Amino acid sequence: MTPPGLQDEIKKREPFESREQEAILNILKTSDLFHNRMGRLFREYGLTSSQYNVLRILRGEGKPMPSLEIASRMIQVVPAITGLIDRLEKQELVSRVRCDKDRRVVYVAATQKALDILAEIDEPLVDAHKKLIGHLNQDELKQLIGLLEKSREPVTKDDS
Amino acid sequence: MTPPGLQDEIKKREPFESREQEAILNILKTSDLFHNRMGRLFREYGLTSSQYNVLRILRGEGKPMPSLEIASRMIQVVPAITGLIDRLEKQELVSRVRCDKDRRVVYVAATQKALDILAEIDEPLVDAHKKLIGHLNQDELKQLIGLLEKSREPVTKDDS
DNA sequence: TGCCATTACTTTACATGTAAAGTATATGTA
DNA sequence: TACATATACTTTACATGTAAAGTAATGGCA
Fold it and tell me: Per-residue pLDDT averaged across B70-86, rounded?
């Protein structure tokens, strides 16, 4: 069933120049892998990862949010959020409303249709998470989480 | 100097639904952060992360490589490699040569100009790695690497 | 020899992500 | 009130990444 011995990992060869580099490349590689997997799941529901994230944030907030507030909760740069919301609006998953008091602000809200889709995804998503790293036990997960948080620590302090 | 209390992390709020989810989100978030930082460094040399990776792979190989071989060493899907190499070629960082024996194959090679840039980046890159996670000691790095490798394990076996 | 499947790329269409510049509003202050 | 700034977005230009379909060459086999 499986093709010959295609690419095992990503045919690595270069001996790492340092443990730091090895760790960083491992993070990037693992993230890419998981990102792809999750992306496939979202695609089954007609969403991309970013779109899903916007909707999840809106659901979590429970009420309309300004565009920039949404962008700040994602890792994204400002300009990207506009097109993202444009596409969500076209799919009728969010609606935009100008704020009366401050007309520069645009409030974005998830529609019922979006909430329905999110609800549908909830379970498969939890399953997907389990499938992806369910083979690590709770202690290992805790360790991993701790190490990653520590990794981000110095950067967390300044800005982005 | 630092703006008020802008966004600390990425204003998290939702309590994680499971440790698995927390771990995955941590991986994605950390990766994004590092990816951005490295991207800035590459940009100083006129390269994007992907472009740098292609060149690094070519340097590691030491000789011309078929496009698909390059793509397989990156996490990328096939179509993306074409445009990527197009842009590198336009910058005179790689050259393309059709294989005589199998005219479907296109060999890609790094130019001297590319090798010079890579050499210039080497040291700053090692510094950047150190700066990003140099605060983890060797044991922690080893643990982190081990956990990430274990995380990818089940997926590594089948295909992508 | 002739044809089909495979292989190695390309092309096309579209969703993102980054950077830089522009627009509409608000706000603080002289 | 008039003006310089700051805000909250948009727009524009590009580099990627994904999926799906198309093209050119090879190879295997009847």
Answer: 84
